[in-house]
Amino acid sequence: MIELQHTTKIHDESRQGEALDMLPTGKSKGRKLYIESYGCQMNFSDSEIVASILLDNGFETTKDYKEADVVFINTCSIRENAEQRVRNRLKEFESAKAKNPGLVVGVLGCMAERLKSKFLEEEKLVDVVVGPDAYRDLPNLIDKVDDGNKAVNVLLSREETYADISPVRLNSNGISAFISIMRGCDNMCSFCVVPFTRGRERSRDCHSVVKEAQDLFNAGYREVTLLGQNVDSYKYTKPVAEDETQGQMINFAQLLAMVAEVSPELRVRFSTSHPKDITDEVLYTMSRYENICKYIHLPVQSGSSRVLELMNRTYDRQWYMDRVNAIRRIIPTCGISTDVITGFCTETEEEHQETLSMMDYVKYDFAYMFAYSERPGTLAAKRYEDDVPEDVKKRRLTEVVNKQQEHSLYRLQNFVGKVQKVLIEGFSKRSDQDYCGRNDQNSMVVFPIDERFKPGQYVHVLAERCTSATLIGRIVE
Ligand code: SAH
Ligand code: SF4
Ligand code: F3S
After folding, report:
1. What is the pLDDT of residues 107-127, one digit of tens each?
2. Contact status, residue 442 vs residue 293, Cβ threshold 8 Å
3. pTM > 0.90
């Protein structure tokens, strides 16, 4: 998110090249792992699972790929430029491999799943290709490479949720963490590669989600973000014979309440909500718990009903507006952000105007905006011609971005003069004299340090002014 600041964004191939940063464990055999993640927050979360699996197998980690024995790159396929970025990065690893022929180079994640063994032909330095459901097999695959083979496991699973694996928190501020509550996606949005790279949707055991939240809280964390491609379709049926609630089905609203009950001091966020599935029950649950943040990421993609149908989003313009109306009615203070695609197949100028008018209607707090990028194998690639010229896509994108800038500023200005409850996350990026944190609606707030308060504590901040991305204020009693 163009903005590492908005950490709830789960689809952000602009986050790139973040290496993990953690202390090695004692039981290390001493081999060093370097892992770099691209793409959405799901991938970053998966890298924490991968690190956990390898630490259990005696690895240490390093932040410098030049001293690594194993280099992993966890990849994203969502748009062509996301893949290009990974290929460019792999080129940079070539010299490390030349210096150390024993170096194991692995490609993980969505690109691995999309390209499978073809990756080994295309990029000669790659030794191992592993899809998102095969990470338990990594130690075994590394052994194979050590024996002089190339190794591939891209099997997708209908069950794997890594529920029993305790993620190693990487690059963590010790205050906010992500909890994966489901994997895969059963929607078939025609532009989207995710159902092919991540497989069928499955929900994780609700008890393991709550336990992870509780463990994080006990370790001092004060904010969790529940992650899934479509959190509103979370559905977990307790196995028969587990307890007296056997066979009971838990939906997303119920899971949200269970996590919120961990502690009123634990903020709960979630991403992503699908407009076709977000229920009033979820909205009422949000309004019932003070600690469930009043912020919803509700990707619209297009404001035109005809384009939405081609996109196979299964809602139309009116339905989307009705969902926004329901949010405003049930949670009047709720922040709303979105994703927009410009120049989807056959999109006309009038239809593009409908996207702009939808933006005017909602006045989003924040948006992630993209020019359509055709992905091989998707329904749109098979059915429709990618016929909007690149310069038109880009011009429409610029119009959407400009409009969003106005709206972001408008929303932030509305907070000026008001007191915000802020969870202190740490020092501001720009100055060690200032703290930063977010308000309920996920807007970044910067304010001078007050020695009485530490990161991880809540403070009330009077917003005195704003830039287009940040509120600036001071702590008030
Ligand atoms: N599961 C979420 C988001 C999925 S991917 C949802 O359903 O909303 C994140 C965002 O990337 C999408 O919301 C969409 O705006 C964008 N995106 C996905 N595929 C794309 C493509 N082929 N070209 C351009 N943008 C794309
Ligand atoms: Fe892709 Fe649609 Fe699934 Fe989101 S809901 S991951 S856009 S297929
Ligand atoms: Fe995420 Fe990119 Fe895969 S957005 S699910 S890492 S294709």
Report:
1. 999 999 999 999 999 999 999
2. yes
3. yes
